[in-house]
Amino acid sequence: MRYLEQRKARIEIVPMIDIMFFLLVFFVMVVLRMIPSSGIATQLPHSSTATEMAHPKVLVAVAADGTLSVDDQPLSLDDLTRKLASGTPAETSVTIASAKSVTVQQVMAVMDACRSAGVTHLGLAAQADTRP
After folding, report:
1. Which domains does the chain have, with CATH numbers?
2. Confidence band of 96 (pLDDT split at 50, 70, 90)
């Protein structure tokens, strides 16, 4: 009469672990998409012809006082040129995000530093003009 004995119920843990790992990966991927790229908060100039660009490989931020930073690390123009030249500059796309109060000469100095490193894909960040 062995088949009349009651057996203890078992909870299978392996499928539960698989589901937990799937949820963990899902939430990590979602959170990574939600984190904006870090940078210095500036007021970008407005442009009525601003268009959407592909995500740049390098974002150079020019603060109102003229200081440069890449990935929250302050750099000089020479350091920027060396950093860009160390990789593959012909394939690197650089976007320059400057404050409204930055002079054209300061932006041109950054562009010259990028061009002397061999970068051919340059872009300027601007906000779309929503005024009527």
Report:
1. 46-128 (3.30.420.270)
2. confident
